[in-house]
Amino acid sequence: MRKVFLIAVLIVSIIILINVTSYLISNNSCCCSINHTKDIPSFKTVGGRIISYHEFKEFIASRKLEIYLPTCLPDKYSLSAIWARDKGDNLDFPLIILYSKNNVTDYKAREDTLIIEITPSSPAPLEQYIENGAKPIYNKNGSLLGVLFEKAYCPTCISQKTLPLAIVRINGLEYLISFRDPNTLIMIINSMKQLS
Q1: Is it true that domain 2-194 has CATH number 3.40.50.80?
Q2: pTM (2 decimals)?
Q3: Per-residue pLDDT tens for 19-51?
Q4: Secondary structure of the chain in the HEC alphabet?
């Protein structure tokens, strides 16, 4: 009975996370409107915008954050865009780091992009996700680093309904990372190093 309850809580949490994330990062003015939900405000509505790498580094320094990003990317992938919420006098979470082959700047998860969304960590224990079927991800020291959902619902995908999604926690920050191949996703996670 407890497992059923926890699975239901996990499903509801994922649905809420998708809806909140979609609410915060949906982009009505994007050039690619495939699978676009018109009743969800765009990320721009709540101050979301593409920021420069310099602004990103200033945000990290001003908050004294330790941000971890992958050092190993899939073949031909590179940094395409960094999104943040602009509150007028300062930037705020979520940070959305986008990597692609073709300089895609649309932050919505798709099969052809690597998306990393960074937010303050959730209080939900990672073990709760593992009890409900997520695969644990351990660092090289054997400590629990995150979890992997091999088939997370992807409402903005073009040709498939699911994408592998990892939740990784490092030093008080949560990284939601999506990529089309779970093995490559694990390789990406294992390559994450602190940004200097």
Answers
A1: no
A2: 0.78
A3: 434 433 333 333 333 333 334 456 767 788 999
A4: CHHHHHHHHHHHHHHHHHHHHHHHHECCCCCCCCCCCCCCCEHHHHCEEEECHHHHHHHHHHHCCCCEEECCCCCCCEEEEEEEEECCCCEEEEEEEEEECCCCCCCCCCCCEEEEEEEECCCCCHHHHHHCCCEEEECCCCCEEEEEEEEEECCCCCCCCEEEEEEEEECCEEEEEECCCHHHHHHHHHCEEECC
